[in-house]
Amino acid sequence: MNICVTGASSGIGREIVKQLVKNGHAVWGVARRENLLKDLKKELGDLFFYTACDVNNQNEVLGVYQEMKKGGFSPENIILAAGAFLNDINPELNYEIFKKTMGINLYGALNFVDIFLPQFLQKSSGQFIAISSTTALKPSLRGIGYPASKAALGIAFRGLDLAYRKKKVIFSTIYLGPVATEMWNAKKSFLVESKEKIAYRIIKAIKTKKSAYYIPFWPTLVSRLSFLPDRWYIALTELFR
Q1: Which sign does the torsion angle of CA 167, 73, 81, 46 carry?
Q2: 232 confidence band (pLDDT: 50, 70, 90)
Q3: d(CA 29, CA 144)
Q4: In this predicted model, what pLDDT tens digit does every residue of 164-179 receive, in sequence order?
Q5: For labelling alongside 126, which of 89, 151, 187, 236 has CA 20 to 30 A away?
Q6: Rounded distance, CA 71 to CA 66, Å?
Q7: Which neighbouring-strand residues pair with 169?
Q8: Using CA atoms, how far apart are residues 34 and 236, in angstroms rounded to an integer?
Q9: CATH class for domain 2-238?
Q10: Any idea where the domains of the chain sit in the sequence?
């Protein structure tokens, strides 16, 4: 299977790439840091291809599409794992950082949808998998752009799935709870999964093709309790750090 993964240079995206290649899939990785992509190429070999790209730049995303086409690589699945959690409210609101976060997390994903959707529709097959977060359901004291962008991404993918599933193009959203990565800055515990386990579960979404996933189950369940006041929820999540 040919699979494209954004955010491939680090964190969960990198782990997804490594597991996919280990399982025999051809993977096209996309990330801004070309040096890390080169290192990954040396590690993984002939089944890994890459393009350095700013996902928020539509022209660069178009360049990814053109490189794939030139190389004869037609993706069957696109896993949108690129993301940034930037502090845009401490010590005060920083609107420029807010816009940057929205650009990477929301428009960066939708740029790939815009450019690759016609190809998927022509083939009557394909799947986009968006990596969202339980912060899409509850706010955070670490920033407002990240939760807002993930909430917008999730609702956009729900609408896209309604519109295109009947045409055999699947849009899936994965809502992640606390994961032991640099972005989350949490230590692994019984409530905080490792990036290796999270990557494994994300890859399973390619086979099941559901519209929404909540991973891990118990920590994400807390986020889905709508009656829980925001401040109580924040106090609970801080226990994971």
Answers
A1: positive
A2: low
A3: 28
A4: 999 999 999 999 886 6
A5: 151
A6: 9
A7: 126
A8: 38
A9: alpha beta
A10: 2-238
